[in-house]
Specification:
- The complex is a heterodimer of chains A (about 290) and B (about 325).
- By secondary structure, chain A is an all-alpha fold.
- Chain A has 11 helices and 2 strands, in the order ααααββααααααα.
- In chain A, β1 and β2 form a beta hairpin.
- Helix content of chain B is about 70%, strand content about 0%.
- Chain B starts with a helix and ends in a 12-residue tail after the last helix.
- Classes of the chains: A mainly alpha (about 290), B mainly alpha (about 325).
Chain lengths: ~290, ~325
């Protein structure tokens, strides 16, 4: 039993690393703009589909295809924030909510029209092989995903604290008016943040396509997983989202083992509601980094 | 009238807005009643002139208007952006099927009970949900709805994804009967919404939407008011769900609990006009009209409605109804 439980913890830890990577874009956008992007799931799925297309044309490894996918997502996302969401962000909380909801609906429909309703997945040698980690054998892709998730979180934290842009971004998050007075182009910083989040989400999206699959409506479940992660981690905290990812992953694995694997979604969404009510401030702080 | 509006709980601020327009408002009210009576008369005699296709179109349109009006009560007037209302459509559909299959209750009672079951589930869901604000409420309600779908897909009692069929002995209605049921429901939901939002209750609800903390300081019990709006909204949504099941006869969880219900409610209400009584109707005609026109192009209709939603929220956040009245740029204030 102990070994079984240990293996659930290990599975959950690996899954959680993936979740941290998946939630990173959501954390960044919320942390900087106090905006919850209801289309975050569709951003992930769009990246996975884009990788699917790239891999189809030039037969790259799906992870290497990120060299193309991430910049494309970055470029696509920038004008969305700059010209659609920025004017709404200033006018209250619900208008951007409606707008990102609209983007989510539009994206889902485009996915159906272009790729059809059936699930697709990304394929690579490491999605089928396993690695023995002592306690148990796990799928190689989950080890890669967890490592990449951790790396992304660390890199984002590093970027925000060390680089000039990161500082401008944190300044804009802290006090947009003061930042603007000091010469920070807040609209530009917001748009860059959104674009950066989309670029980072490309990694999460491709990992989803590799480890699971993508279909036009899959984004919503990922939005909720991402939201669970960032609420647990304390809305907007970069390291918090790593912790939140691990907790969500472990809770899901234990739930799947003791309640039933078909109830994974039910378990995570119930966890979300419980956490929202019990600890809306999250386990760690509230600020970016 | 204005005496009624000023309550000890302190909705007195609204006196300023209401008082000057009272005489003109009263004259308009008289005209509105006449129009309403005319509309009901048209509804009653229309089936004589409608083909079978016309009847089914009218049925779906009424049902859409009902769920949009129901969503508008909590989402528009209440400012609580529910992403979970598809749950109540599904609960209404499934409750009707289960009641007809497993009890001896007559059809009319089963329909009513379906609405009440949706109400009870809404009340239970409200206990955690309505403590949340703004986007937390939105995402939390989406979580509950998707958890519900996930549960229904796995529940053996309702035959998982296979779904349920309504017993033909008890639930065979012709198109005319379905038409009248849907028409009665849309009239009932609109009258309920009109009575609620024009009275004290509506003032409290909108005060909460505009500033929950200030409303609470003035003595409004925010939780109770939101709970009432949420459960009444769920009641009508559940009834509409029951009618959907009656029309389809065969139901299964993926489409009964489909998020498309929620998407349509929000599209219709925002496009027509949040927190207006006519907005959900205008929105229903537009959204359903686009769906009918583009029926053979798959999900293109959803794409166009989605684009329309974004255009409206950016250009005329008050919706088409207010844009036509020349209040297009008035931004609705929401709770924070």
């Amino acid at each position: 039993l102990l070994t079984a439980n240990l293996s659930h913890v290990l599975d959950g830890f690996l899954l959680g690393g993936l979740y941290a990577g998946v939630a990173l874009g959501l954390t960044l956008v919320f942390g900087v703009m106090r905006l919850v992007n209801l289309a975050h799931g569709e951003v992930l799925i769009a990246a996975a589909y884009l990788a699917f297309v790239v891999v189809g044309y030039i037969h790259l490894d799906p992870l290497l295809s990120l060299v193309i996918v991430a910049p494309v997502m970055f470029v696509l996302a920038y004008p969305v924030q700059r010209y659609l969401l920025n004017p709404l962000v200033h006018s209250g909380l619900e208008a951007p909510l409606v707008a990102t909801f609209g983007i989510s609906v539009i994206a889902q429909t485009v996915f159906v029209l272009v790729f059809g309703a059936n699930p697709k997945s990304l394929e690579a040698a490491y999605t089928l092989t396993g690695i023995n980690l002592g306690i148990e054998k796990v799928r190689t892709i989950f080890v890669i995903a967890a490592a990449l998730g951790l790396l992304l979180v660390a890199a984002t934290h590093f970027g925000l604290t060390r680089f000039r842009f990161g500082k401008a971004l944190r300044a804009a998050a802290e006090d947009p008016v003061a930042a603007a007075a000091l010469g920070v182009d807040v609209d530009h910083v917001y748009a860059l943040t959104f674009a950066l989040a989309a670029g980072l989400s490309s990694f999460g999206g491709v990992l989803i396509g590799l480890a699971f699959s993508m279909d036009p409506t899959a984004g919503l479940a990922w939005l909720l997983r991402g939201f669970t992660v960032i609420v647990l981690g304390g809305m907007g905290s970069i390291w918090g989202s790593f912790l939140g990812g691990i907790i969500t992953g472990i809770a899901e694995e234990f739930g799947a083992a003791y309640v039933g694997p078909q109830y994974r979604d039910l378990i995570v969404f119930s966890l979300l509601v419980v956490v929202l009510v019990v600890r809306p401030g999250g386990l760690l702080g509230r600020k970016v980094t | 009238v204005s005496q009624d509006l000023i309550t000890p709980e302190g909705a007195g601020i609204l006196e300023v807005e209401e008082a000057p327009s009272a005489p003109a408002g009263r004259r308009l009210l008289w005209l509105r009643w006449l129009l309403a009576v005319l509309a009901v008369a048209v509804l009653v005699i229309a089936p004589r002139f409608l083909s079978l296709y016309g009847l089914t179109v009218a049925f779906s349109l009424f049902n859409y208007a009902t769920i949009a009006q129901a969503w508008n009560l909590i989402g528009g007037y209440g400012g609580q952006f529910s992403l979970g209302h598809a749950l109540f459509v599904g609960v209404g559909s499934y409750s009707l099927a289960v009641l007809l299959l497993h009890t001896a209750a007559p059809l009319w009672l089963s329909i009513l009970l379906s609405g009440l079951i949706a109400t009870v589930i809404a009340a239970v869901a409200a206990l955690p949900l309505l403590r949340l604000r703004s986007v937390y409420f939105a995402v939390g309600s989406l979580g509950i709805a998707l958890a519900g779908t996930s549960w229904m897909i796995n529940w053996t009692f309702t035959k998982q994804t296979e779904g349920l069929g309504l017993p033909t002995s008890k639930a065979t209605l012709d198109f005319g009967q379905l038409y009248y049921l849907a028409a009665a429901l849309v009239v009932a939901s609109t009258i309920t919404a009109a009575v609620l939002v024009r009275g004290r209750f509506g003032l409290r609800l909108m005060a909460i939407r505009d500033d929950e903390d200030a409303a609470a300081e003035l003595g409004v019990d925010a939780f109770r008011v939101k709970l009432a709006a949420f459960t009444i909204s769920a009641f009508f949504t559940g009834l509409a769900g029951a009618l959907v099941a009656l029309q389809k006869v065969q139901i299964e969880p993926v489409s009964a609990f489909s998020l498309n219900w929620t998407i349509n409610m929000i599209n219709m209400t925002v496009i027509g006009g949040l927190a207006t009584l006519s907005g959900p109707f205008v929105g229903a005609v537009i959204v359903y009209g686009i769906q009918q026109l583009l029926q053979s192009y798959g999900s293109l209709a959803t794409l166009i409605s989605g684009i329309l939603l974004i255009v409206i929220i950016s250009v005329a956040p008050g919706g088409l109804v207010r844009a036509v009245r020349g209040q297009g740029l008035r931004v609705i204030r929401f709770s924070r």
